[in-house]
Amino acid sequence: MLVFIDQSGTPHPNDSAIRPVSVAVCMQESASRSISGRLHTLKRELIRHEALEFKANRLLTRGTFRRCPDKRELVEAFFDLIRNLPITVFAVIMERPISIIPKTTLLPNQFRYLLQRCDLVCSELPEMTTVLFDGDCRQCDNLSLKFSAFLYRSNEGRSMTTITDTPFFVDSRVTAGIQMADMAAGVIRIYEEQQLFQGVPSGDSFLSAINRYYKILEERTKNQTSSEGYPRAGFYRMPERDHYYTLPTDQNSTDIEAATSNGTPPVKPESQ
Are the beta carbons of 23 and 6 closer than 8 angstroms? Predict the structure, then answer.
């Protein structure tokens, strides 16, 4: 299985995103070529521009819906296609942190929670999972090293035997799975920040469309239960406290990672 991970907004006190979102789009490796081909066909048939990238911050805007009927048609067709694709979508909706997140060698919890869900999916198949991130390995203060350390130096990571040990960092311009994750993350962030779960403002065609797209994505997720009996929502609202790790200062990095995986940060998180 292939898992494409992307993020909308950055968990930082000064970032404009009130609800940054990380998304994982899971698909069978055997279906990836067909899915990519269908996305390319959409671009070719609707706007005759196959190189255009499905990018939320360019397409999911009020301007698109007011002044760009061709792009709006493309977005509508994109989510109509998502409705019927053989994919599973997981999301972690974060709170914007109140203070700057301390630098650490630990894998950020939003990625850890996504891996938990992907591992459960693959355990049911069973299959191995290859994880692909947008961008390069230097993001999140060397995400690739944190990823490997989590898998090899924590009890929880070692238990995820379906996750391959090497993540890939790819260019979203040529990777359809990342483009889907980007669009999904954009929709979910707007939905959460506008609190559309409380209702859609009357006469707002843009937010009405976002609400429809969110419902389509919601149909593609899967609520799970861990082997220990803990519920794992497909779309999980991660509390602000889970950005931080409260651990004894005399622990080395190996112990910190293991302790974190066993429920230390800073109170027992939902995934445990």
Answer: yes
Three-state secondary-structure class, residue 25: strand
Retrieve residue 184's tokens: 């999904």
Q: How far is CA 92 from CA 114, 162, 188, in A?
A: 7, 21, 10
Q: What is the pTM of this model?
A: 0.87
Give all domains of the chain, ordered by start, each with its CATH number: 2-261 (3.30.420)
For residue 153, give the H/E element and its range.
helix 139-153
Query: pLDDT tens digit string along 103-129?
Result: 888 899 999 999 999 999 988 887 899
Cβ atoms within 10 A of the Cβ of 266, count? 13
| Cβ atoms of 147 and 129 closer than 8 Å | no
Chain position carrying tokens 């650490």: 104
- DSSP letter at 93 equals E
C-alpha 20/C-alpha 96 separation (Å) is: 7
Distance of alpha carbon 24 from alpha carbon 5, whole angstroms = 4
Residue 113: CB atoms within 10 A of its CB come to 24
